[in-house]
């Protein structure tokens, strides 16, 4: 099987930054609901959202049981209505298909069109699962190490309290 786009670069950068992780290989997963892995820490989901008629994006990390109020989130971000971009737009932006989205995917966003956002309910000491640009490999990292990775790429993650629907 050919590695997914940027997969080798992700591993290289994690090693370069001396970030430790646990690696689990599994059958393809397409959503947190289909994920029956035994991963330590909270189960999280990743939502790629786009304000209407813009070329900017938000990658929101939330607990799997959270159903964020997108109207309220848009208001908190000071933007118009948020929607989910098409699979084609996600592939153009991050080089991945539906089901492989995580914060590690931001290695492909060289124009920094995406702003990473964590729900404040996620603790920096938690460990979370991230797909390695491939929905058959999950890497488990501490949130503070994910922040280190993102900072190296030039991102400053935001923390917002996600209101429920």
From TrEMBL:
<dbReference type="InterPro" id="IPR036754">
    <property type="entry name" value="YbaK/aa-tRNA-synt-asso_dom_sf"/>
</dbReference>
<dbReference type="InterPro" id="IPR007214">
    <property type="entry name" value="YbaK/aa-tRNA-synth-assoc-dom"/>
</dbReference>
<protein>
    <submittedName>
        <fullName>Aminoacyl-tRNA deacylase</fullName>
    </submittedName>
</protein>
<dbReference type="InterPro" id="IPR040285">
    <property type="entry name" value="ProX/PRXD1"/>
</dbReference>
<feature type="domain" description="YbaK/aminoacyl-tRNA synthetase-associated">
    <location>
        <begin position="43"/>
        <end position="148"/>
    </location>
</feature>
<dbReference type="GO" id="GO:0002161">
    <property type="term" value="F:aminoacyl-tRNA deacylase activity"/>
</dbReference>
<comment type="similarity">
    <text>Belongs to the PRORSD1 family.</text>
</comment>
<dbReference type="Pfam" id="PF04073">
    <property type="entry name" value="tRNA_edit"/>
</dbReference>
């Amino acid at each position: 099987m050919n590695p997914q786009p940027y997969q080798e670069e992700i591993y290289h950068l994690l090693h370069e930054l001396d970030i430790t992780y646990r690696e689990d290989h599994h059958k393809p997963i397409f959503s947190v609901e289909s994920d029956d892995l035994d991963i330590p820490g909270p189960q999280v989901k990743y939502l790629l959202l786009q304000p209407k008629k813009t070329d900017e994006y938000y990658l929101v990390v939330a607990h799997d049981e959270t159903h964020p109020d997108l109207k309220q989130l848009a208001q908190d971000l000071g933007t118009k209505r948020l929607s989910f971009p098409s699979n084609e737009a996600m592939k153009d932006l991050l080089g991945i298909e539906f089901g492989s989205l995580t914060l590690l995917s931001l290695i492909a966003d060289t124009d920094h069109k995406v702003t990473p956002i964590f729900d404040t309910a996620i603790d920096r000491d938690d460990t979370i699962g991230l797909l390695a640009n491939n929905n058959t490999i999950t890497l488990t990292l501490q949130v503070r190490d994910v922040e280190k990775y993102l900072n190296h790429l030039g991102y400053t993650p935001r923390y917002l309290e996600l209101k429920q629907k």
